[in-house]
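Form 7-S
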Amino acid sequence: MKIFLRSAIIFILFLIVSIKGFSQQKNYKLGIVGFYNLENLFDTIDEPNKDEEFLPNGSNHYTSEVYSDKLGKLSTVISQIGTDVSPDGLSLMGCAEVENEGVLKDLVNSPKLKSRNYKIVHFDSPDERGIDVGLLYNPKYFTVKSSEPLFVELYDDAEKKIPRYTRDVLFVSGMYDGEPFYVFVNHWPSRRGGEELSAPGRAKAAGVCKHKIDSITKINPDAKIIVMGDLNDDPVSPSVAVVLKAMGDKDKVERGGLYNPWTDYYKKGIGTLAYNDAWNLFDQIMLSSAFISKTHTGFFFKEAAIFHKSWMEETSGKYKGYPKRTYDFSKYIGGYSDHFPTYVVLLKEIK
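Output:
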């Protein structure tokens, strides 16, 4: 009898522990948000912008065959980003260095991406080279409510008011699985002329973002905001760390502030593009404090990653290990981009 009672007690205790363990299991919905500099995604049509080198009779001999191959290479990369954690892959993807909306339409309609049914947000910017930013989104996840280009006012000569045109900041607001999201897509002025000399232009672009962000967080400090782009600056650069006040330490992010998950990557020497045997991490995705709050609701930040496969690298020569670009000067080498894409994984508990 005692043996029976002891066995019954052990079984009941086991059952209680099992039920308790089972009750603690949680289910999550995943969302993958990425950014990719598409490196001079031009069409082959002569337009008023400075696209001469990207024409069939231009210095790059940019033919329809080259254009088609480039679309195929880019779609191969995009189709695989995040699929190791979600079969849907990217739900949102910001992009830079696109000539117009037409090239984005060709990209999303390519065989490897067509089934995703990606939609496009794009505005023609006043950039001197005629390249823009854009946002691709999967309507299964995201619904656009409003969008606008934010002008970045720059001057070559401030006293004489001689303007210098760069990319607009793309601002998009919408509903991500029923939750309000605010998305900024950036491609800040390059480091042409030197990092220090060109820094004020990037600070100006960062200020355009910060002004809009402040207008949102003033109304709702817990707004879900995503700032992404090719910033032509690293996570520790003044434009990011001082103007945007993006913090790499979660504990230092104030309510309404920005968290930058790429700071630790950069400090470890990991980057998305290489120059003179040094890595930079220009391609960043930053998130507002609501994504990392301990009392979060809805989607929250899980992890950040650089999509970096061996087949996307240069395999030999002095650039071995660098991202394999489309051209080596004017020679077509059939690469992907001179940048590796980045992405973040978001989770949302399913009650």
